[in-house]
Amino acid sequence: MKKLTNFPYSHVLVLGLAKSGTAAAKLLLQNNIHVRVNDMKTDENDKIVKELTTMGAEVIVGSHPLSVLESIELIVKNPGIPYENPVLAEAAKRGVPIITEIELAGNLVESSIIGITGSNGKTTTTMLTAEMLKRSEQPVKMAGNIGTVATEVAQTLGSDEKMVLELSSFQLMGIQQFKPKVAVLLNIFEAHLDYHKSFENYKEAKCNIFKNQTNHDYLVYNAEEPVVVEAVANAKAARVPFSVKRRQEHGVWADEESIYFKNEKIMARQDIVLVGEHNLENILAAVGAAKLSGATNDGIYEVLTTFSGVKHRLQYVEKMNDRLFYNDSKATNILATQKALQSFKQPTIWLAGGLDRGNGFDDLLPHLENVKAAVLFGQTKEKLKEVAEKAGIETVEAAENVEDAVKKAYQLSNPNDVILLSPACASWDQYRTFEERGDMFIQTVHTLV
């Protein structure tokens, strides 16, 4: 078991259990630190309460009394708990440091950390980076906001093994000395303002990813995002820009034909499976992070010719009889479907529909120019039919559900067509989740002959 080093606290409050809080509490207890756990929602008879109590923790559940702060030197908080929480607000008044579990993970890692953040594209970039390193025979593990608790992974990490971390603004707010060897800043858009209260606070949290870096570290950043460019201007790390529009002598870039790292051609764009300009940005960022961490061009090529995307997010499913099938079931709103439609230049058969929330779909009109046919289902199929007809789409058909829509779309298709599920609606009229809807699309595609 790995030990926390240079950790000056002996009495720690873990605020909020869930996965990260539980992992943090166990780690601290294993390092002989006095741990008090406070959680509002967990029942006192819960299995984890009994386990932590047996390990030596003092566990208080059901409320957040200020008495939990007595003798506390440090708070490790669940990232989702807002700083307006009475315990946190009082701790701030008393000058008690407040961190998230990511800070503990950073303390445990002996080798390189690659930290990835941004308002959009974090998960895709994290997965790409990790896979590029794996295919290059570099030992690596993923963790963080992607769903695996960082401290749990950090404790299993070999001395030569790298860790690729997806990092949210919530996690990054709570760091003191955490420092990735390679930091990636994809973009910064307005998000989570209910939590951060202002765009400036949100931006500051995102920029914490490079605040502790030195000139021996690297910062991969989006050279086409003015907010990002301004934010990194005073960074101490070696800056490595990426751009989908312009040559970058000291970074990662793409022209119409290929992608490059500095002046080195990595591969032809036509060989990349993942579609969409937003995904090209994610690809360039991942190439930068991976190359700086030891990835080979062969390893990168192998990933980019096979990686089909995060499941249900413009996911490449299959090429069958020269038709390309894409699952974008996570597109539960108009903006997401706009991005999906923009990703294809070839003739597209569009599958859409779902829960009727009362909105119209005219905002999709400018993005339907490559759609040759629409197969529509669910509560919104009549509304979507009106938009499809306004757009001059020649063939518009109704379907009972996604399974029926896939079969009809295939019958309407020709070689080199794209068959795209991008519903622009939530799934709840016919399916429990967008995942269930996407899985039905995938299953049906695989039954086609």
Walkthrough of the structure:
With 449 residues, this protein is of the alpha/beta class. It has 3 domains: 11-99, Rossmann fold; 109-304, UDP-N-acetylmuramoyl-L-alanine:D-glutamate ligase (3-Layer(aba) Sandwich), CATH 3.40.1190; 315-445, Mur ligase, C-terminal domain (Protein-Tyrosine Phosphatase, Chain A). Helix content is 33%, strand content 21%. The protein has 16 helices and 20 strands. The strands form 3 sheets. The protein has a 9-stranded mixed sheet, with helices on both faces. A 6-stranded mixed sheet has the order 15-16-20-17-18-19, sandwiched between helices. It has a 5-stranded parallel sheet with strand order 3-2-1-4-5. It is globular. The mean pLDDT is 95.
How far the N terminus sits from the C terminus, by CA atoms, comes to 53 Å
**Which oligomeric state applies?**
single chain
Compute the number of structural domains: 3
Percent range for β-strand residues? 15-25%
Predict the CATH topology of the largest domain: UDP-N-acetylmuramoyl-L-alanine:D-glutamate ligase
**Main sheet characteristics:** 9 strands, mixed
Apparent shape: globular
Low-confidence region ranges: none
Mean pLDDT over all positions = 95
Q: What is the highest CATH level, the class of the largest domain?
A: Alpha Beta
Q: SS-based structural class? A: alpha/beta
**DSSP E strands, number:** 20
Radius of gyration computed on alpha carbons:
24 Å
- With strands numbered from the N-terminus, the spatial order across the biggest sheet is 7-8-6-9-10-11-12-13-14
| CATH homology superfamily name of the largest domain | Mur-like, catalytic domain
Helical amount: 25-40%
Keywords: ATP-binding, Cell cycle, Cell division, Cell shape, Cell wall biogenesis/degradation, Cytoplasm, Ligase, Nucleotide-binding, Peptidoglycan synthesis, Signal
Pfam families: Mur_ligase_C (PF02875), Mur_ligase_M (PF08245), MurD-like_N (PF21799)
Domain Mur ligase C-terminal: 312-425
Function: Cell wall formation. Catalyzes the addition of glutamate to the nucleotide precursor UDP-N-acetylmuramoyl-L-alanine (UMA).
